Amino acid sequence: MITEPVVRHDFRLVPAALTLWLGALLGMLGAWWLALACGVAAVLVSVVLLIRLRPGRSRWWTGAAALLVAGLLLAGPLGLRLSRAEHDPLRGLAQRGTEVTLHVLVTERPKPVRSAGYADQQAGPRSVVIAAEVLHAEHGAQPVVSSGRVALLAPFAPWSEVIPGQEITASGELAPPRDADLTVAAIYVRGPPAAATEAPWWQRAAESLREALRQACAVLPEEQAGLVPGLVVGDTSGLSERLDREFTDAGLTHLMAVSGSNVAIVCGAVLLLLRLLRAGPRLSAALSGLALAGFVVLAGAEPSVLRAGVMGGIALLALALGRERSVVPALAAATCVLVAWDPAMAVSFGFALSVIATAGLVLLAPRWAEALQRRRVPPGFAEGLAVPAAAFVVTAPVVAGMAGQLSLVSVAANVLAAPVVAPATVFGVLATVVATAWPAGGEMVVRLAGPEAGWLIVVARRASEVPGAVLAWPSGWWGGFLALVVAVAVVLALRRRRLRVLLALVLAGVLLVVLPGRVIAPGWPPPGWAVVACDVGQGDSLVLATGEPGRAVVVDAGPEPGPADRCLDRLGVERVPLVVLSHLHADHIGGLDSVFEGRSVGAIAVGPGRQPDWAWRQAGRIAARHGVPLLELDLGRRLEWPALDLEVLGPRYVPEGEDDDGTQINNGSVVLRAHTAAGGVLLTGDVELAAQADLVAAGTDLHAEILKVPHHGSRFSLPQFLAAVSARLALVSVGLGNRYGHPNRTTLDTLTADGALVARTDTDGDTAVIPDQTGPALVRRGK
């Protein structure tokens, strides 16, 4: 049996890299003098080592010399840079919320800040965050001497087209920075960019290439069209909030951030092509270097992209040239260079992920793959299992601290995703190049990336739906440290037979206790359910059973795609004869598209209101795309199914136009009385004081055993209206920790005083009403 020699890695530069990293980290999380102290300590230690070690006789003499250089950098230029940032004049002005005018150099592409839809505000990006360097600052007519970094929080529409390299003038109110890096202040910008200069030609070229890719992707289905640019160049501007969350839950977010893997795929494809063409090593190295530089420019040439280029490039070249021993010193040297160039790298989660993931793939993955092969696992499968497992173990502490959660399905999801990532990236890059000169050709090429993107969406969606897929975890540095302790404990346990057996017993016990309760016998949905208030966050979505298996009526669809769809899946609903939109506010129609996923829908019904205009157009587009009619529910209309009757009670009066606070739209909500197997249900949308008074004054019979509390339990509820309903059960559809103060304590006290049992989706999760011998009863699924 022939065994391959064990690769002995060279760790001599690692102490210098860790010292630079730790010193810069302490200097930014604490105070600049901590970096200075760390540098002085490193200098003293290195001097002692250099005296005791002799050059040429000890291989660690080089490492001690590198540590000396790292200490001098921390004690000198890096410490001075951190001190200047800590004492920048803009920091003091930011503490007072001062109005300033800044002339800045844009250093990174605008990052959209997505907001969930609510009331008449459509879901999506409403602002952008732009990193920039201050060239000149003024407070009133007085100049402010500053050369620090700032974060611009600006309106989306006028600022989303800004390109790195442009010099722009912006005015607004300063605020303290949120992140502990070299950013000295944030500025809330008002108005469009002023006095903008032209960006460098390479930045304009890169933006035109990215725009060509976005245009080519328009031929793909909507979700695929938003995903492909993210896979290729990290452009997630077209990615839906639902898909973003599903990729996070599945542990696949790294696929949409430009990383060393993107670089390795692009350069690897070039090297493979050159090898087929029998090109020499020098020509191959030169052309792959050009491909690397071109990809960095395409992705934006931002600090994060440069980091990925350095990390991915060194690992690729070292492994491709068969010099595995050079990977660790190259990684350490790259870490030193990057931190010295930009100390803010030290506090960047992306930087930590890049370094740690590269180290894990080099140090752990080959050993684990070899161990699997010794256990007769085929080589290809062994590597396919070892690589994502090693990446998950080493990056889990960083991800846990960053996101406050751990994805327990990450390894399996990455194994399933791995085969299609490389072809999707290669086809995407080819489509970008071709589409610039030949748009139709780019569209043909990008279609080849569509199936791969579709497979990734399926993997992310199904993985995120696994019960217990995401484990809540403490966020921040302490959470990351706790995850590190657990990861080390697990790895050490797997190295010893007795501990492996103990770990297996613990996992078996968890599966026997948790799995039956969460998967095998979840107790959901309860048999005979009649009404379910779905937990969709800060919005409404109720499901009414029709008495036919797998068939139900849906009233409202929540604020975003995903939650309503998952609620219907849990209920086993496959056919929806009618979707009723009580009114057209975003928190009621935002998830409409997802109701159609995997199920047939008969029609969409609305009330007489047509505001806001964007929501009315959106509902029409969705109805047309799925080929279903868009109906209007008139006052007095009755609809019947075997175990469900619906009667339209309101609105009694439809206000014209649109007001500023959305009250008129709320009062135009469709009010329904449903007769179900569990009793009468009053569905009220978001009706407020005026509409409630209209219903009471008209003498409408409002009595119902179950009340869907209006407007998420807001304070705008008439005690007379609630008394007229006299409900035994009150369902409040509301989001956890919402900023609107819903539900209002006075409203809840009034309901309780009237004898109602209150259930809230923010604390109880999905809530079902079932018939009981004594009347309707509640079953809470829980969070």
**What is the number of helical segments per DSSP (H or I, 4+ residues)?**
29
Largest sheet: 8 strands, mixed
> What helical percentage do the residues reach?
40-55%
Q: Kindly state the number of beta strands.
A: 26
Transmembrane segments: 20-53, 60-80, 252-274, 281-299, 305-322, 343-365, 385-403, 415-438, 476-494, 501-521
Domain Metallo-beta-lactamase: 538-736
Subcellular location: Cell membrane
Pfam families: Competence, DUF4131, Lactamase_B
Structure, explained:
This protein has 783 residues and is of the alpha/beta class. The chain is 50% helix and 17% strand. The protein is built from 29 helices and 26 strands. It has an 8-stranded mixed sheet with strand order 17-16-14-12-11-10-25-26. A 7-stranded mixed sheet has the order 18-19-20-21-22-23-24. The chain is globular and about 100 Å long.
Task: Give a short synopsis of this structure.
The protein is of the alpha/beta class and 783 residues long. Helices cover 50% and strands 17% of the residues. Residues 1-6 have low confidence and may be disordered.
Map the helices and strands.
Elements lengths: L13 H16 L2 H21 L8 H26 L2 H7 L3 E8 L4 E5 L8 E16 L2 E3 L4 E7 H4 L7 E9 L7 E7 L11 H17 L4 H12 L7 H9 L10 H17 L4 H19 L3 H18 L6 H15 L7 H15 L1 H10 L4 H25 L1 E3 L2 H28 L1 H9 L2 H15 L5 E3 L3 H20 L1 H24 L10 E3 L8 E4 L6 E4 L7 H9 L3 E2 L2 E3 L4 H4 L2 H4 L4 E2 L2 E3 L6 H14 L3 E3 L5 E4 L2 E7 L12 H5 L3 E6 L2 E5 L5 H9 L8 E3 L10 H7 L3 E4 L12 H9 L3 E4 H4 L2 E6 L2 E6 L3
Parallel strand pairs: 5-7, 12-14, 13-15, 14-16, 16-17, 21-22, 22-23, 23-24
Antiparallel strand pairs: 1-3, 1-6, 2-3, 3-4, 3-5, 6-7, 8-9, 10-11, 10-25, 11-12, 18-19, 19-20, 20-21, 25-26
